[in-house]
Amino acid sequence: MRASETIAMTTGSPDSTRTATELRGVPPRGERLIEMALAGAGLLTVFTTVGILMVLAVESFEFLKQVGITALIFDTQWTPLFADKHFGLWPLLAGTALTSLIAIAVALPLGLLSAIFMSELASERARKILKPALEMLAGVPTIVYGYFALVVVTPLLQRVIPDLGGFNALSAGLVMGIMIMPLIASLTEDALYSVPRSLREAAYALGASKVPTILRVVVPAAMGGISASVILAVSRAVGETMIVAIAAGQEPHLTLDPRVPIETMTAYIVQVSLGDTPAGTLEYRTIFVVGTALFLLTFGMNVLSYRLSRRFRGAT
Amino acid sequence: MSGAQLSSPTTATTRRRGLYSERAFYALALLSIILPLAMLAIMLLGVLKNGGARLSWDFITSYPSRKADHAGILPGLVGSLYLMGLTALIALPLGVGAAIYLEEYGKQSRMSRLIEVNIANLAGVPSIVYGLLGLGLFVRILHFGRSLLAGASTLALLVLPMVVLVSREALRTVPRGLREAAFALGATQWQTIRQVVLPIAYPGILTGAILALSRAIGETAPLVVIGALTYITFVPDGVDAPFTALPIQIFNWVSRPQKAFIVDAAAGIVVLVLTMLILNGVAIYLRNRLQKRAS
Amino acid sequence: MRPAVFQSTPPPRPSPVKLGVDQVRAWFGSHQVLHGIDMQIPEQSVTAIIGPSGCGKSTLIRSLNRMHELTEGARLEGRITLDGVDVYGKDVDPVLLRRRVGMVFQKPNPFPSMSIRDNVLAGLRLTRSLDRSRAAEITETALRGAALWDEVKDRLDTPGVSLSGGQQQRLCIARSLAVAPEVLLMDEPCSALDPVATSRIEDLIHTLKTTYTIVIVTHNMQQAARVSDYTAFLLTGELVEFSETNRLFTSPRDTRTEDYITGKFG
Predict the structure, then answer these.
(1) N- or C-end of chain A: fewer Cβ atoms within 10 A?
(2) Which residues of B are less than 8 Å from A239 in CB distance?
(3) At B90, is the secondary structure helix, strand, or coil?
(4) What is the predicted pLDDT for the residue at B198?
């Protein structure tokens, strides 16, 4: 029973009969239970990570027991679904690297310039329209981009590059570049925005005009944040699945030729998932091996990006 | 111009060398933002042009078919809606709960640091890896099978970091003074959260959650991995039923060589994008209405 | 340098000690804001705490109802007693303490999602259920107690935030009164108000002290002189002087007090 329950409010005076001992009490048990339940919800996210690591590790371990790690590293062919099985990861890595590089080649200049435009050049009103518009670009489902790459971009490019395959790294990479460009734009804009005003004013006071100030003073000062955004974008490109699964093909080639069909790590996982591969078989396990490689790659880049953006934030 | 009047030297009337290149730079920067947006417009209009004619009530209420011009999207649409509801049911309590713990209880404890770093990490894991988790954990170990429940559980874990993020942001907008006022009245922590903090944060949480879910509805890769079916001629009748979803159906059509199926895919995309737009619209409407009521 | 503190418990005390402050030291992280405060706050009186900004007066008042510890990294040593019981004792629930020691804040902070009525009842509703007739009774008593009843009785269901600043602050006082506390802590309650609203609150404090023990932090010396029976002067986390208000303002014993009240600094 709470102390004040018995107070006669009509008298408007606190009850003088209350004794000091009424301060003593333990918080109701419900409070503790609720806190524990909420902490449990938080901990579940940790279990998600543990779950990912465990699922990947268990199946990969079984695979390595059967095949060995040397095959993964020293073979240059990836043909687990054929009778003559090879397990060299390099073709998939090359496919992923190729599409990601093309994507970044598109996304970096576009993202950087549009960030500069929004943070330094655009009027407040233009910014208010352009920023949500760019966010929309990032919100379109990747399957739509995949469709666009296969049905629109590839035929268009084939007019210019006659020997371009129906599936190819080029058009998948280009479209993926458009998709990840808003990520670079938005993070770079944040980085530019956090460059102190005084730095710009110092440059203006020296008689520098706007563009040189941006390019020589503001952008270099924001370099940490910009690099962090680019690394994060690469990580996103590496993990991107549907565009490459639809438009880049399913032929693991160890090549950097953007005109021919290739296969990325993610596309391979999709390819096997679509087929009828029973659990416990070697083919089934390969997708976890590829998944592990994918996870390690993106995890490494995410950590690097986080470190960079932290260091740069600490510096300003 | 945003505060640039103060110091911008371009307002000088004297002609300077380099003014020309300055204009060129401005144009280039503007172009780099217009170009992707133009592409987005072309993409969406192209889809509409290609699939718009195929769109009809029949298309929405029919099952997939081997003949492209008889095929419909019903199982995909229903599957996606079920998936979304189920995902919300799983992800919202967990995500909002975790957010409340981090914002209101945990603060500097070691556990909340661990949870925080972990969530930041999970946000960067490719969605297809969540698919592998779903396949290994929900489909195999927990024996959900290739069911709606397995799909929704996987998507729930996928959107969890985003739900936590938006919920934390909403909780942070509640002024500290209101919490103190409640504490000073002798309210316990949970009473304060339940009756003072959540009523104010709730529009923000709701809006953010709907946006997170509308992202989930467009996810394809994890569902492919856990084995959503691509050809299904019934509507799922329970959480343990096999299922398909809008993006899966579209993926299936876009992978066919026949031109007519590509048209089906375009029509499917129109349905998918419309569904997402409606969701986003609902989120914006709710936010405006609830905010008006609160102020 | 550690100057001598004139520890003058106000002589002939008409009423017993309500709150005892004994060697209280407080920190934010590694920054110490209170350096051993000793005070005996008498029952049913108004005690003002004055001093320049940053002297620790807010921290001191917030340690009285254990609000200080809600701030991240905050720490406290020493003893604070309510009716002789250590409020930082092992088995004391701060929630129960705060129901007996109410607090009004610097900025009026009615709950934005609640009506005037719900704001008054918030403290009770937050903690237990209430039947209707009793709710109506408490609403009226508390609003009358805060001298707000006549102004709002016809619009109890309108949002609390629709009131003027001064009314909002009196609503916050009513909200505290509804919980039936014994002590009312006021942390610069008038600093966000205009002079008219301020004088209404000051009148209210006069009425309230017949029932409650009031501790008020103020940066306004005139206000302290007008409303309080006792005044404590804090400087950089130390209690320089604590005595009857009249004496402190007319014949301060410490030169620093004199410098402060004559406006030489702060």
Answers:
(1) N
(2) 125-129
(3) helix
(4) 94
Q: Give A240's strand partners.
A: none
Instruction: Give the side-chain half-sphere CA count within 13 A for C13.
Output: 15
CATH 3.40.50.300 fits C17-112+184-261, yes or no: yes
Asked if residues C119 and B200 have their Cβ atoms less than 8 Å apart, the reply is: no
3-class SS of residue C215: strand
Residues shown for chain B:
295
Q: Which domains does chain B have, with CATH numbers?
A: 69-294 (1.10.3720.10)
Residue A9 contacts C where some CB pair is shorter than 8 Å: yes
- Residue spans of alpha helices (H) in chain A: 29-67, 69-74, 90-116, 124-139, 142-148, 154-160, 169-193, 197-205, 210-213, 219-221, 223-239, 242-247, 265-274, 282-315
Name residue C228's amino acid: S
- C182: which chain A residues are within 8 Å (Cβ-Cβ)? 14, 18
A4 touches chain C (CB under 8 A): yes
| C256 reaches A (C-beta below 8 A) | no
Nearest to A2 by CA among B231, C7, C125: C125
Residue pLDDT tens, chain A, 316 long: 333 333 333 333 444 444 444 677 666 778 889 999 999 999 999 999 999 999 999 999 999 998 888 888 888 888 888 878 888 889 999 999 999 999 999 999 999 999 999 998 988 898 889 988 888 888 899 999 999 999 999 999 999 998 998 999 999 999 999 999 999 999 999 999 888 888 888 888 887 888 888 888 899 999 999 999 999 999 999 999 999 999 998 888 888 889 999 999 999 999 999 887 888 888 899 999 999 999 999 999 999 998 888 876 654 4
Task: Determine contact, residues C36/C23, Cβ cutoff 8 Å.
Answer: yes
Of C95, C128, C212, the CB nearest to A27: C95
pLDDT value for B1: 40
Q: Which two tokens stand for residue A275?
A: 């087929």
Residues in chain A with CB shorter than 8 Å from the CB of C142 are 9
Contact of B255 with B231, CB cutoff 8 Å: no
- Cβ–Cβ < 8 Å for B164, B102: yes
Share of chain A above pLDDT 90, in %: 55
* C-alpha distance from C92 to closest chain B C-alpha (Å): 13
Q: Which residues of B are less than 8 Å from A250 in CB distance? A: none
Q: Closest chain B residue to A238 measured between Cα atoms?
A: B126
Alpha helices in chain C (DSSP H): 57-64, 94-100, 116-127, 132-145, 149-152, 165-178, 195-208, 221-227, 245-250, 255-261
With tokens 């909403």, the residue in question is: B170
**Beta-bridge partners for C34:** C26
What are the domain boundaries of chain A? 90-315
CATH (residue range A90-315): 1.10.3720.10
Provide the token pair at B44: 């969406």
* DSSP characters over C15-65: S-EEEEEEEEEEEETTEEEEEEEEEEEESSSEEEEE-STTSSHHHHHHHHT
Q: Are A209 and A120 in contact (CB under 8 A)?
A: no
Distance CA A181, CA A178 (A): 5
Q: Where are the domains of chain C?
A: 17-112+184-261
Tens digit of each residue's pLDDT, chain C (266 residues):
444 444 445 555 557 889 999 999 999 989 999 999 999 999 999 999 999 988 999 999 999 999 998 888 899 999 999 998 999 988 888 888 998 999 999 999 999 889 999 999 998 887 777 788 889 999 999 999 999 999 999 999 999 999 999 999 999 999 999 988 999 999 999 988 899 999 999 999 999 999 999 999 998 899 999 999 999 999 999 999 999 999 999 999 999 999 998 887 75
How much is the pTM? Answer: 0.85
Which of B103, B185, B189 would best serve as a mutation to test chain C binding (most C beta carbons within 10 A)? B185
